[in-house]
Design a protein that fits this description.
alpha+beta; 3-stranded antiparallel sheet; 5 helices; 52% helix; globular
């Protein structure tokens, strides 16, 4: 599934927006002198976290419509599939997305939850939340 194709559907666009925001947090922190966070701090965090590396790859693939450099080392990191359940009569649906990276596939929601946990720990240790 290409990033360009994904971005054209509302559920996928929301998912991609999440990953872009998770990755942009690094820029916001190191550009805010009040945070006390440096580029080195953030690079160390992301470099030591496979889940944040996956987030970076998904964010950069989305932003540029293709992944040309990779934090994970896998240029094929992408949102691999989207399972959809349609609730007939209710007019609603539920989506479950999966990320493929490094030869395995993971539930996107679990990746997102782990990424939030990584950032929460990082920010808490610095008394920023």
């Amino acid at each position: 599934m290409t990033f360009k194709c994904l971005a054209s559907t509302p559920p996928a666009a929301t998912v991609l927006s999440f990953f872009e925001t998770v990755h942009a947090l690094r820029d916001w922190l190191w550009n805010d002198p009040a945070s006390g966070v440096t580029k080195d701090d953030v690079h160390k965090l992301i470099g030591g976290s496979l889940v944040l590396q996956v987030c970076a790859d998904v964010a950069n693939g989305s932003k540029h419509f293709e992944l040309t450099s990779s934090q994970t080392g896998d240029l094929s990191t992408t949102i691999a599939r989207n399972d959809v359940a349609v609730f007939v009569g209710k007019g609603t649906s539920a989506h479950r997305f999966y990320i493929a990276s490094g030869g395995s596939e993971r539930d996107l929601l679990k990746v997102a939850e782990e990424a939030v946990d990584e950032w929460r720990k990082f920010l808490s240790e610095r008394h920023l939340i």
